[in-house]
Amino acid sequence: MKWLRAIGMSFALYSRVPMPLLDWESESRRLTLYVFPLVGLAVSAAWAIWLALCWILDLGIVLGAVGLTLLPILVTGGIHMDGFCDVCDALASHQSRERKLEILKDSRVGAFAVLGCGCYLLALFGLWCEVKFPDNKTLAALCLLPLYSRCLSGYGALRLPNARGEGMLSAVTGTGFPWSLVAGGVLCVAALGALSPWYLFPAAAGLAVYFYYKHTALKAFGGVTGDLAGWFLQLCELGCLAGLVLAQRLEAVL
């Protein structure tokens, strides 16, 4: 029962999927990140439904790409994009570690947050315009990416030091080793490889972004925060999508 409550808490925190009232003081709260990848299923389902509508209504590439770009923000309520914007402001400040952490807590939006968000959405939209859907294997690979990115995000939040030792991330962080996230990540990679060896490119790209995230978080902030976890998730999904486009192009050429 506690795992079911943890799943409900994860959806309540990291998505806009309606959930029943939950006991936030229960031990299930510490399991929230262990089941975080399941929230990716909501994003995958939204993508699949939208792509089906695009096919039925014969919508163009541009409108299809707009929907694929916006749906994750609508499903998650923009919580990860909010963290992305805060980190853009903090990194662009070139201030001390303590000042960067203060900027992350500041609710005001700075110029670099706006620039970062605009550039990110433009890059994401451009990549979606380049994705080809020749068969159901591509759709299956695509639907695995939100789960894979959340496995990496949850693993980093649980294994990397907390920059503050407090906050929302600290409140939902458990102490056990995240075997469920490791197993989930391995299964996602195995499934991608089974669909096509070329689809290991997105997995490799996501892993490369994770190591960049780890280096940046430790060097600039002394650890991770909820905002940094959101920043990573957005970059990871962008990197995975870029890896998918690259894989399709290389497969076509070779």
Shape: globular
Instruction: State the distance separating the first and last CA atoms.
Output: 50 Å
Helix percent band: over 70%
Beta-strand content bin = under 5%
Helix and strand run: HHHHHHHHHHH
Mind summarizing the main beta sheet?
Answer: none
Structural class: mainly alpha
Q: Report the average pLDDT across residues.
A: 89
Tally of helical runs: 11
How many strand elements? 0
The unreliable regions are none
Cα-atom radius of gyration? 18 Å
Topology (elements, then pairings):
Blueprint: H1 2-14, H2 39-57, H3 61-76, H4 79-93, H5 97-105, H6 111-130, H7 136-159, H8 168-171, H9 179-195, H10 200-221, H11 226-253
Helix pairs in contact: 2-3, 2-7, 3-6, 4-5, 4-6, 4-11, 6-11, 7-9, 7-10, 7-11, 10-11
Explain what this protein looks like in three dimensions.
By secondary structure, this protein is an all-alpha fold. It is 74% helix and 0% strand. The protein has helices at residues 2-14, 39-57, 61-76, 79-93, 97-105, 111-130, 136-159, 168-171, 179-195, 200-221, 226-253. Helix 2 (39-57) runs antiparallel to helix 7 (136-159) and helix 7 packs parallel to helix 10 (200-221).
